Model the fold of this input.
Amino acid sequence: MPLPSVSGSPGLNWDQAVEGIWHGFQPIAHMRTGRCHGYEALVRGWDALGFDSPQSFFNAAHADGALTGVETRLMDKAAATFKRLVGTAAAKLFLNVDPRLEGAVPLVTAIGQRYGVPIVHEISELDTTAVGERLEAAVEQYRRRDIGIALDDFGVGFGGMKLLYEAQPAYVKIDRFFIAGIDRDLRKRAIVRALVSYAQTQGVKTIAEGVETAAEFYVCRDAGCDFAQGFLLGRPQTYSDTLPFLNDTVLQLNQQDRRAPAMARQRLSELLERIPPININAPRSLLLELFAHPSTPSTLPVVGKNGAPRGLIRERDLKPFIYSRYGTDLLRNKVAGSRLDEFVVPCAVCDIGTPIDRVIEAFSEDSDADGVIIVEGGEYAGFLSSRSLLKLVNERRLAAAADQNPLTRLPGNNAISEVIEGALADLARPHCLAYIDFDNFKPFNDHFGFRQGDRAILMFSDRLKVLASRHGGFAGHIGGDDFVLVLTGVEEAAALADVETLLSVFRLDAESLYPMDLRHQGWFEGKDRDGHARRFPLLTASAVVLFLAPGRNEGMSVDHIVRLVASHKSAAKSHPSRIVCARV
Done:
């Protein structure tokens, strides 16, 4: 039998071809617990048949009118192999199904039921033209059969946000393009954070695709991504034994990361309401029984059969039924439908290990939000009501206000220490720590008065805020004329150039604080610390810039950084550029 070409395969025995295909399974792991939430089945062996890609293999099957049979057989093989390997673990099988497949919904449903395997159907954003008008009907059927939908390759195709809106997916797989080098690319970080923020408000889980480095893993995890998939966690492979329940790489990365949000986790646990959820398949008449009791909360979480949150049911949305003449009869009427879908409203979902600021942000995205559903390992753990979240907001505001500098409104010493500790603990990404203070500020303040001194400080702090926000960094005010700048994921040359520009611009800004004759003169006469009259140059600033390289040794503390800065301050003030750099 001649090998098929990529454009067609006349005479190819597709039964024999399918026999030569097998599946590799790639883990999709929770980024905080390491639990393998699922495995994606990827076809292997197509190259031995003479094809240059899996897509060309399926194109040839479609051209021969054999696509439905080929896909059905391969899905059956994948589910059978997965069932044998997964054991009793509650992992999901992620399947890429060709969008041209006729009757995909009943076929996928039948295979899932046959093997008792929870299936997630992946729809590629690149394939939306082939899905066409069938998408909406397919989505509804999948939801009723508890088969999840994942948008694959999200962000690089043609469907975009429209597909996200129409498909109402359970998962969004963020394309590798946005993950590659995200630790060094501010624009990618901003896009991923925005997408994750939207997904959280809709209760959609996010999967970072193609994670290959520890730095990418940490950035995606901290941005709020729920799961990760990529060569760092494991390549697609065949298994002779049970599929792992935990991903060792994720466990190791989280163990090495000293920024583990233990305090945030503890506070969320304290405020969490352990409201028993309703299953999406429960009869609608149950709502009448539950809300008839005064002790029932006015908002009830809803989960699927695997414990994954689906949204909320609110008592206020049922009032038109409860208080109408025939409303209660409709809720009890089995003919009208038994599922709860039409009463479920979206709700933000966050993992219990999510930083508190991110939880608050997810809640604040929706002005009509009742709270946030908290999950652990992808399963429902409890509910944070709007009252609890407002309490968290007030706590954060009070803590920030107590630490904030009253003049510049920049974070103070406590926040600065936390940020530096986080940078020291993050060994995967480069960090730039810059300590900046003014030169001869006391004589300037004494001679021209504290109001001019305050103007100088405000001038500089405004410039510092702009620089920090441009890189997604941190600007802090230690006190007086001492400031801190922390940039993460910025190359050394770029960070140094920005600090140089900051000092240069401030020098020009500060000239406006002097009378015209002193500007031309270039100095003013004041008194030093001993009360002696002397000449002082016009106001400038100096910086000690520390670069923390990825992969450096652990064990460094904030106190070590403080001592290092102190040892370089004099050199910075005497250097022509007013900058001294050191690598840690």
